[in-house]
Specification:
The protein has one domain. Helix 5 runs antiparallel to helix 6 and helix 6 runs antiparallel to helix 8. It is an all-alpha fold and 257 residues long. The relative contact order is 0.11. It contains ten helices and no strands. Helix content is 78%, strand content 0%.
């Protein structure tokens, strides 16, 4: 098994730092920095005893760093197995947007002001609208990834898993866009506190759907090291997709209930 599976895995996906493309190495490095930033903020919260609750908590800096770091690394890794046009451009835009979102949220958290739905000053308004625009860039690049995954290339089992992962990511991004649109409408309408209170209702759906791009493709990749046939591995991935879809649906019911 070792002599037949490992060469295929190495040939169809860069599994080492030296085997990664230049844009992928850059994305991995940025993802590590973002994730480390999240960990640092968790430590600060634990050491200082600062609040974990509310729109000005350093919790937001922690969660954005951890989430965007993990998502950027997951997307970069998953797409490394596929032939994608304009990979450097799409991945570069995705990386830049992840950095912008995390940096602005972190800056506002340290300033002690809300990062989203904050139109108190021209500067805060600019930050809020930049965050919204950054979310738009992430959605556009994710759609670009989805279009690329639609073209046959690479291992069909991995391609199936990655296609689902990108779809799951789009659900998460769409949920995030809905949260922002609703919050901006309420805040612009003179109800900023209501915007903060209700924006978090969709967080369970947003969080669960966000990481489908890691969980299902990682399973599909791991199955390559088994003696199972391609048909069996596809069935296993379809089962994983069904289970994860139920988890997304449960999160949606929890969020909207």
């Amino acid at each position: 098994m070792t002599t037949t599976v490992l060469p295929v895995a190495a040939r169809e996906g860069p599994l080492t730092w030296s085997g990664a493309r230049r844009e992928e190495r850059s994305a991995y490095l940025v993802a590590a920095i973002l994730f480390a930033s999240g960990i640092v903020h968790v430590i600060v919260l634990l050491v200082t005893g600062r609040t974990w609750i509310g729109p000005v908590s350093l919790r937001k800096a922690a969660t954005f760093g951890l989430s965007f770091g993990l998502t950027l690394a997951s997307v970069t890794w998953a797409l490394s197995f596929l032939a994608i046009r304009r990979r450097a451009l799409l991945l570069g835009l995705f990386t830049a947007a992840c950095v912008t979102e995390t940096l602005l949220v972190t800056m506002q958290a340290w300033r002690g002001v809300p990062s989203h739905f904050n139109f108190e000053t021209p500067f805060d308004s600019a930050v809020s609208m930049t965050l919204a625009a950054g979310g738009g860039v992430i959605i556009v690049t994710a759609l670009g990834f989805a279009a690329s995954v639609a073209r046959p290339s690479g291992d069909p089992v991995l391609r199936l898993a990655i296609r689902f992962g990108i779809g799951s990511l789009l659900v998460a991004l769409g949920t995030g866009a809905a949260m922002i649109a609703d919050g901006v409408t309420k805040s612009r309408g003179g109800h900023p506190q209501l915007a903060y209170d209700t924006a978090g209702q969709l967080k369970p759906l947003h969080a669960v759907a966000m990481h489908g791009i890691l969980v299902v493709p990682a399973l599909a990749w791991a199955l390559r090291f088994t003696p199972w046939s391609e048909r069996t591995r596809i069935r296993a991935v379809w089962a994983a997709i069904a289970v994860y879809s139920v988890a997304i649906a449960a999160a949606a019911v929890s969020s909207l209930g």
